[in-house]
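Lecture notes, unit on protein representations.

Consider one protein chain, 200 amino acids long.
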Amino acid sequence: MCWIAICHLDSKSPSMEPLSPRRVLWGCNMGWRLNQWTSSDDRVRGGKSQSYLDSRGTAACFHGTLDITTLGGAGFASQRTAGDHLHWDLSSFAGVEVSIDPSQSDDKVYTLILKDEILPPNASNGREQATTSWEYDFSTSNCRPKIDSPIPSSCQSVFIPWDHFKPTYRGKLASTPQGLDLSNIRRVSIMIRRFDGWSA
């Protein structure tokens, strides 16, 4: 179980410490608008993992089952924003803050994923076509208490500068001539996974 609230921050500090102003994406006084989220689990590949996202006041609870046997040691469960119409221009900000309530969370590794490109479904089979994902792995061990923050005092946060996100393609590190287009973020996901003998 992982309680999360996300906001992205402007920071001009050389140390990359997040400074005001803040823009809340989900959580805090913005709520979670769960109709903008949908599951994206390994069931699309024949697995049995299943994820859920529930609103709990100003936070959300990401939970479910990660199946690590059906696909031979691999598996993933995730929630992502839904709809091709969604779009965020984050180019004027320095990174994203993820806030977690440690008392309601485990110590597993989760992955925050950003995408700046969404292709139409494959015409032959109707499946979504793969594009580059920009990923950052985190756990409660990365989080620190927050001072002067809009999140509840029981929460801790990790601030992730944009250049800490790594490009991947179909789950593997990728080289890309272009960086993440922060002016055109099309999708945000939260995921837990296991692959190639590595367990989140």
